[in-house]
Amino acid sequence: MGGVTRAASSPAPASPKLSTPPPSELATGGPASSVLGLAPVIPVVVLDDAADAVPLARALVAGGLPAIEVTLRTPAALDAIRAVAAEVPEAVIGAGTLLTPGQIEAALTAGSRFLVSPGWSPRLLGAMQDSGVPFLPGVSTASEVVALLEEGITEMKFFPAEAAGGTAYLAALAAPLPRARFCPTGGIGLASAPSYLALPNVGCVGGTWMLPAEALATKDWDRVRRLAQEAAALAA
């Protein structure tokens, strides 16, 4: 994730569309260093209670969504990442809403296997590049995309997707900036996701619609699993 361009000593074997690379492959920075192809949707998770992290992750993985972004918006986030990393090895757990190098260090220590930021600065980008794991720096303008391409980074988060121009904006970027690939996030739902996924420069989308507040409040993990299956089926 994040277009890391460091060369690997030998190419890793290609993984099926919905299979999860081993942690050692996902963190190499080589051919297996992207999670954009793991599933059509990356759930964007905000947790107030770290105790919910493991059953939630198991439900998402069972539904076919192995890459899970836990946002660092709550005090429970790092503990949630730590729990999933320890107890749900089939999940590819990542950290989102990263704003500082210190948060990146804390996320890696907790077990994050990929990193996501809503935007980027040279200092934040440098910390992501030094992390040794895949990452998606956030962009919302062509100039930001060009600046990242100059750094050799080809995979990015497009945020906030709907507010920043949606599918029309991303389609307009495809011809002049064909090397850039995106995970659009922000305002995307089940109805709009297919139009994003149909674009040649979109690898997956990020969303929360498979995590309705009432399902999390009542710990209805079976509903989460069913909604995850519905989202995973968008790859068909």
Description:
The protein is an alpha/beta fold and 236 residues long. 35% of the residues lie in helices and 14% in strands. It has 10 helices and 9 strands. The protein has a 6-stranded parallel β-sheet.
Essential attributes:
236 residues; alpha/beta; 6-stranded parallel beta sheet; 3-stranded parallel beta sheet; 10 helices; 9 strands; 14% strand; globular; disordered N terminus
**Number of separate strands:** 9
Regions with pLDDT < 50 over 5+ consecutive residues?
1-32
* Radius of gyration based on Cα positions: 16 Å
Our count of helices gives 10
Categorize the overall geometry.
globular
Strand-residue proportion: 5-15%
For the largest beta-sheet, the strand count, sense and barrel status come to:
6 strands, parallel
Q: State the share of residues found in helices, binned by percent.
A: 25-40%
Q: Quick check: average pLDDT?
A: 89
Listing every helix as H and every strand as E from the N terminus to the C terminus, the arrangement reads HEHEHEHEHEEHEHEHEHH
Q: Strand order, biggest sheet?
A: 5-4-3-2-1-9
Record the SSE blueprint.
Blueprint: H1 23-26, E1 41-45, H2 53-62, E2 67-71, H3 77-87, E3 92-96, H4 101-110, E4 114-116, H5 122-129, E5 135-136, E6 138-139, H6 142-150, E7 155-158, H7 166-174, E8 181-184, H8 193-197, E9 205-207, H9 213-217, H10 221-232
Parallel strand pairs: 1-2, 1-9, 2-3, 3-4, 4-5, 6-7, 7-8
Helix pairs in contact: 2-10, 3-4
What is the gist of this entry?
By secondary structure, the protein is of the alpha/beta class. It has helices at residues 23-26, 53-62, 77-87, 101-110, 122-129, 142-150, 166-174, 193-197, 213-217, 221-232, and strands at residues 41-45, 67-71, 92-96, 114-116, 135-136, 138-139, 155-158, 181-184, 205-207.
